[in-house]
Amino acid sequence: MMEPIIDHITITVKDLKVAEPFYDKLMPILGFSLEHKFKGTVKEHAFDVVEYCHPLLLFAINSPREAFKDEPIHRRKPGALHHLAFKAKSRNEVDELYLQIKEIGANIVDHPKFYPQHGECYYALFFKDLEGIKYEIVYEEGRILSP
Q1: Do 63 and 10 contact (CB within 8 A), yes or no?
Q2: Which distant-in-sequence residues (6+ apart) come within 8 Å of 30 by Cβ?
Q3: How many CB atoms lie within 10 A of CB 32?
């Protein structure tokens, strides 16, 4: 039986020139080394891509299709990414990451706190990148980590 492990995530941003400097600051906070950052062009699909590689996950941002470049980003559109959550090791780590993420200019949507609507021990931070793509850092004490 396959394990539900994500290999890579690619997110289309509105403007790669605006997004890349922000993600260059964010990705090291999330455990990625800029030594393993790669840039390229996928000519057959007409987009540029910036990849941040980690042994556990490849995260990439890419340019939009010309026809869609002026469309607003909205997480509630069909097919859109609602938000992406990264797992922290502790509540303390969520708090520490909050300070770093705030410092790089992310739009803090909700500061670190308990969110009982998601679970009794659900502690998280929500933020958006410069273009409005939403992310979360979460720690849930007692969550089952292995089958």
Answers
A1: no
A2: 59, 86, 97
A3: 21
- pTM listed for this prediction: 0.91
Instruction: Select from 26, 23, 48 the least CA-distant residue to 103.
Output: 26
Name residue 27's amino acid.
Answer: M
What's at 99, amino acid-wise? L
Q: State both tokens at 103.
A: 């410092």
List all residues 6 or more positions away from 111 whose beta carbon is below 8 Å from its beta carbon: 98, 125
Angstrom distance (rounded) from CA 30 to CA 90: 14
How far, in Å, are 27, 40, 61, 83 from residue 47 at the CA level?
A: 21, 9, 10, 22
**Inter-residue contact 120 to 142 (CB < 8 Å):** no
Q: Alpha-carbon dihedral of residues 26, 82, 77, 5, nearest 10 degrees?
A: 100
Give the CA distances from residue 10 to residues 6, 7, 49, 65, 96, in Å, rounded to whole numbers and listed in that order: 11, 10, 9, 14, 26
| pLDDT tens digits, one per residue of 6-53 | 999 999 999 999 999 999 999 999 999 999 999 999 999 899 999 999
Give the separation between CA 69 and CA 19, rounded to whole angstroms: 13
